[in-house]
Amino acid sequence: MNNGIFLLLGTNLGDRSQHLATARALIEARAGKIIKTSAIYQTAAWGKTDQPDFYNQVIEIESILSPDELLKTTLGIEEEMGRVRTEVWGARTIDIDILLYSDIMVEREHLIIPHPRMNNRKFTLIPLAEIAPEVIHPVTQKTIRELLAVCTDKLNVFTLTL
Fold it and tell me: If I label 128, which of 38, 49, 142, 146 is the partner at 20 to 30 A Cα–Cα?
């Protein structure tokens, strides 16, 4: 059983709260037990800004799946939930990113762990720091709290009370 696996969930179409709940349930059923969940955060779209705000949440799971099996499983969940990949950073019903997989580093065409852009995104670092502030990023060797302190992303990230 592998611990320290952190996933970022994001959605900006339809019933965003329900999409996050459905994704969590499917992840728990197919990928592994959810150990921790952050609050849900609302953020303006990053990269392609002419779309609805995102709801984001970070979860920690424990899983017996390898990184590649986890990616295959999360992509299947996205597809089942209606995710259609038509444009980079486009609107979506659900997005599930593997942020960290323990201290494992993977660099392949279809999978890079740690997530290559997580250090530049407050909507990722804020919920991750909420549940895992002292976790060490395996590439930078900085804690998540330290990465957040130096993140230059200017987007506002708001905690939601649902």
Answer: 49
